[in-house]
Amino acid sequence: MAVQYKFPEGFWWGSATSATQIEGAANEGGKGKNIWDHWYETEPHRFFDGVGPESTSDFYHTYKEDIGLMKEIGHNTFRLSISWSRLIPGGRGMVNPEAVTFYNQVIDELIAQKIEPFITLYHFDMPLEMQQEGGWENRAVIKAYAKYAEECFRLFGDRVKKWFTFNEPIVPVEGGYLYDFHYPNVVDARRAVQVAYHTMIAHATAVGVFRAAKIEAGQIGIILNLTPSYPRSQNPADLRASNIADLFFNRSFLDPAVLGEYPAELIELLREHGQLPAVEPGDAKLLKSGIVDLLGVNYYQPRRVKAKEHLPNPYGPFMPDWFFDNYEMPGRKMNPYRGWEIYEKGIYDIMVNLRDNYGNIPSYIAENGMGVENESRFIENGEIQDDYRIEFISGHLKWLHRATEEGCNVKGYHLWSFMDNWSWMNAYKNRYGFFSVDLETKERTPKKSAHWIKAVSENNGF
Fold first, then answer.
1. How far is CA 259 from its chain centroid?
2. CB-side neighbour CA atoms (13 Å) of 425
3. Where are the alpha helices (DSSP H) in 358-447?
4. 32 contacts 129 by C-beta, under 8 angstroms
5. Parallel, antiparallel, or unpaired: how do β-strands 12-16 and 77-81 relate?
6. In Å, what is the CA distance from 433 to each residue of 28, 57, 74, 180, 392?
């Protein structure tokens, strides 16, 4: 095929997932409980169709076949996460030998198939015992996380060169401490801010451990879901609303990760409202030393905001939403299944921002994808004809290509996800994969997009 959009040499084509979302075997192989196992046991009704994390897509047993399929569709890279509660049940203490065997086998199989493993240390799955000690509110948990990171680098760093401390660290803050869609379902901005701050302290601590481990040719980064905040208009009130949304939802992690410090405006805003976290001497220096080598960017949808229509309720809990309202742009393109706007240019705007304001740090799209409900409607001749997914990916890739042409330091593109996986409270409601997964038989079947991405990867463009 004639290639109109050619990507830079050595571009990373692949996909991403996380331990809790695909491994299954939640009660096998010596794994300890994490907050998802616990929450599902206590409140199963909060999960779509009552489906919990026990077996998910069963990667624990089918990794070899799955990695073979990745190879078949042209992956040269794949991001997975290690489950802290599987590797060190309880979060502290002895390493679980069955987990070491499993992760070694996965890593070795990926390398044997010439797929470079990228590994995330923490993807939303706090060991239950650590959460019972306060989770990221408690600095003692940071110490345990640093020890866990050290074990990972020691065990797997001879083969794994790309490491990420956290995936979307703002999500457990929003879900667990502000908006009640993750365990522990707290609604308290002050605690949310503390959790966010300690997460970055944990990140910087792990970066220090990584640098001390001297992994040859190793790089350490973080994966952030960056969501451009677009104002309704150029009115100063709308601009201020979008700036504050950006401070809360993007720069609260992006600035410390890439620049080594928090935005002064954010600190001022939190101070003004009595929401500053407790800090310790030496923290500022620690954050400076935690600047990443590589940034993963997750992008699904834009955030559109406008000035508040009404004053916030003075008796309600403090929220970021005190400063802006969400805005629905007329005529926007939608993914109706997820209720999300599709705005491909956002991916370009993110990369230009990184180029111009963040030293053009090496970065890649670590997640982008389209969740669709009831995809079996689109089966023809035994295959899901997911042309909507091909259109979604190619639309984003065109803008990503333009960013590379304009000097943005973009290294790759990973879809969420290789195969349909379990999505937290949504379970299997929306499907995201290149391969569909039959929940009864666990059988994998390629969708039309699987053949398409194979060609893209082989041609390094489309």
1. 20
2. 12
3. 387-405
4. yes
5. parallel
6. 25, 11, 15, 27, 13
User: What one-character DSSP code corresponds to residue 113?
Assistant: T
| CA distance readout (Å), 163 to 136, 169, 362 | 20, 15, 14
Name the nearest CA neighbour of 273 among 229, 322, 239, 313: 322
pLDDT tens-digit profile of 154-213? 999 999 999 999 999 999 999 999 999 999 999 999 999 999 999 999 999 999 999 999
pLDDT in tens, 254-273: 999 999 999 999 999 999 99
| Positions marked catalytic | 168, 367
Look-up of token digits 């979604």: 392
* DSSP result, 127-192: BHHHHHTTGGGSHHHHHHHHHHHHHHHHHHTTT--EEEEEESTHHHHHHHHTSSSSTT----HHHH
Alpha helices in 186-230 (DSSP H): 189-213
Quick check: 34 and 84 in contact, CB under 8 A? yes
Q: What is the pLDDT of residues 102-141, one digit of tens each?
A: 999 999 999 999 999 999 999 999 999 999 999 999 999 9
